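ok trying this again, last paste got cut off
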Amino acid sequence: MSNQYLVVGSPIDHSKSPAIHRAAYSVLGLDWQYGRLDVAKGGLRQVLDNAPEALCGFSVTMPLKEEAARNAVFRDEFVQRSGAANTLMRDESGWRAYNTDVYGIVKAVRPALEAAAPVILIIGSGATAFSAMMAAGLLGACEVLVFARNRTTRKQLVHFGRESGLKVRAVRRFASAISKADFTISTLPARALDTLAARLKERAPQAIRGGLLDVAYDPWPSLAGQVWASAGKPVVSGLDMLIWQAIAQLRIFTTGNPNQELPNEVAVVEAMRHAV
């Protein structure tokens, strides 16, 4: 029986992970299967405990990333630091947890980053925001601003960034933060940024200083992406992040090493882009 993989989370019907993983399997000549399974918060442990032998790994999305980390026997450095995992792979000892979101953000943002020591604004304070904070460090940020409405998780994210050695502060005024940022990373779900983006477009589009990565990619372009593009700033789709984090997942699924390049990786990336 061929290896089987699933993307799990809720809601999951919109996920493009099956399309990009299957495209990669075709290029790599792998007779593997990849599907999707809707799993509500709190339900991952039961899925892991009852996974058939052929089910070798998972791509994990909201709201299960913290559960994935908790239910693993091995956690990579990024999972240990953030408490969130987006990748699970099974071996003889149990489930191994990885966070490839950090790699995905770095690979997506770096080509659009114009400042050598940028001020980076992170919007949101969920699991992906913690990955964005680690990515900001790898991108050489001189300062990280955090704009988030949840006071508890915002405070945790700021503390996490400072514990990681970064200069981090919370900001309360959206337009003011945008005007200070060399690059903005929105980690909010689809359409959650629409109200702020519309207000920015109406009142202060000139405040936009740097580029944008909007991790929400359905629909695309997002309203925020349209606003940034109309201001003449670089806009990076969440699809780029999705593809690059999936590349790291495929490295893990095929070799167990997120840093080991795939055979013909350039063609794999191209096939993934074509699939979406």
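PB: full thing came through this time. The radius of gyration is 18 Å.
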